[in-house]
Amino acid sequence: MAALAVTTLILVIFFDWNWLRHPIERFVAEKTGRALIINGNLNIKLGWPLARIQATDISFANPDWAKQPLMFTVKQIDGKVSLPELFKRHVSVLTLNLTQPQVFLEQSSDGRKNWLLDRNQQDENAKIKIDSITLDNGQISYTDTGHDTQIQAALSTHQSLPQTDMAADIIFTATGKLKGLALTASGSGGTVLNLNDEITPYPLNIDISLGHTQLHAAGTVTSLSRFSAVDLNIALNGTSLDQLYPLIGIALPRTLIYSTKGHLLHSTKQWRYEKFTARIGKSDLSGNLQIDSTGKRPFLKGDVTFQKLDLADLGSPIGMSNKNKGKASDSTQQTTHALPVSTANKRDVLPELPFRTERWDSVDADVRIQAKHIQRARALPIDNLVAHVKMNNAILTLDPISFGVAGGTLAGTVTLNGKHDPIQAKVNIHARKIQLNQLFPTIKLTRTSIGQIHGEFDLSGTGNAVDQMLASANGRATLVVDGGKISKLMLETAGLHLWEMLQLKVTGDEVITLNCAVADFDVKRGNLQTKIMVLDTDITTIMGRGNIDMAQETLDLELQPHTKILSPLALHSPIYIRGKFAKPVVSLDKTKLILRGAGAIALGVVNPLLVIIPLIDSGPGKDSACGKLIRRAQH
């Protein structure tokens, strides 16, 4: 018995394993339909539970559909195979050392993968499980025709500290394209690639350029095949956040040039971007974000605080455009005066850049945004933005959204349903305590100090850009100005009281009490039709009527002054405000200039004010000037 054991041991030790080369090649060909060729020596050292396999000059063919004839060639293989798994007809390689490998990985447009070893290359279980690989001077190519991806990588090892026992690093470079974007990458990592090791972190230092995006990352990755854990410090910059979609598969808004630094962590199915700082355009922000991929769609959650928010940087995300679409149209033949607007060199002023909804269903979101310091044009008095942004099944909701405007607030909800084409939009916004003298800081109001503005906007519309939504809008819009002071000269001019105008020009302007100003519109298919438009003071009441066309971006309003005072020369004539939003004109109809005596507002003028009682109650209050005016109308 002892002699048999010794004889068996001698046979195992001195057995010429090259005898198995051709049987192994035939077995692989029968199972895969592809040729495995072992041109060099084959040596196997049996042990339990691992067997060590060494071979030289090996090649393995690609399937017929692949672009390259060979899937890999390698100068030398040295690996350890699990015998218990082999007896279960599973090939499990614990360690694999490859010298001068050339690997060609490819995925076809119909989903076949050449590293799957079944005859159709579609069975995800038909692959060799490899825990770790050590590569010594090799090349790896990856092609995915269906996703316009082709990458070539070169790897080499070097000893960072010569004549020491420290492990060598692997140095790599890569070029090509990823999902159609030009790709270059370089970096270093540990020599042993821990593909399935769930315990040992793999050190990684990498620089990537993808299209117009650049990424630097340094830290560790556990299990390179699954990314079961990630701990990286990253620095990222690019021309727009939406260009990260090919890299992360999550839709982000279109932005100006950005840069960001932070701590990227990953465990189970959750990614976290912690304590990040960023700059987008001229805006500075920071916060924490996390992505949970356990649901049907990735779920983005977080808090973002803008240390400085430049409103110009929000142009693209909210659908605004700086495109000059043309010059204003010529004036009419009436006596005209152009209003001072900053966009007078444009034909249209409403935001026209389309929202890109094709990626909205790629992610759900719940993000809170705050910006206390807002950098803006002096003509736009906005501050203290607070928004709760939600995305659920391609429906974007801002609930609530609020910001300070001219000493008051605008607050409410906005819903954009991206499941429909065009987008279905709903807006419910209320304005409270906005100071009109702060609303136009670039216009010198001299001694004018009008009181608070209150408003309600309840609109719905369809369109893929803001201008389209407004052009199709239905609903109601109401504005109320209660109390304050207004220029007497301005009102005398509007009422055409020539004698009083001459006196004021000589003695100086005065201010008079503003009782109430109201504008209430029915909105149908983008057309704002006046229900009531009135400005009431101690000396005159100005009534208005007409419409505002959001589709054509035009005004067609008629103002009719009604004097309350006796005047030697009280001229009464309609005043027209017409033309494009970008360049409206004010004109008088000289054919209707008629000498009038003192008049009073008709009783029927105030009756339409009754419809705005809810706004009066929630805004200036029932004891305000507008509230008293309505009570007088009721009696």
TrEMBL record:
Pfam families: AsmA. GO terms for cellular component: plasma membrane. The lineage of its organism: Bacteria, Pseudomonadati, Pseudomonadota, Betaproteobacteria, Nitrosomonadales. GO terms for biological process: regulation of protein targeting to membrane. Signal peptide: none annotated. InterPro entries: AsmA, AsmA-related. Residues 4-531 form the AsmA domain. PANTHER family: ASMA FAMILY PROTEIN YHJG, DUF748 DOMAIN-CONTAINING PROTEIN. Transmembrane segments: none annotated. This is AsmA domain-containing protein.
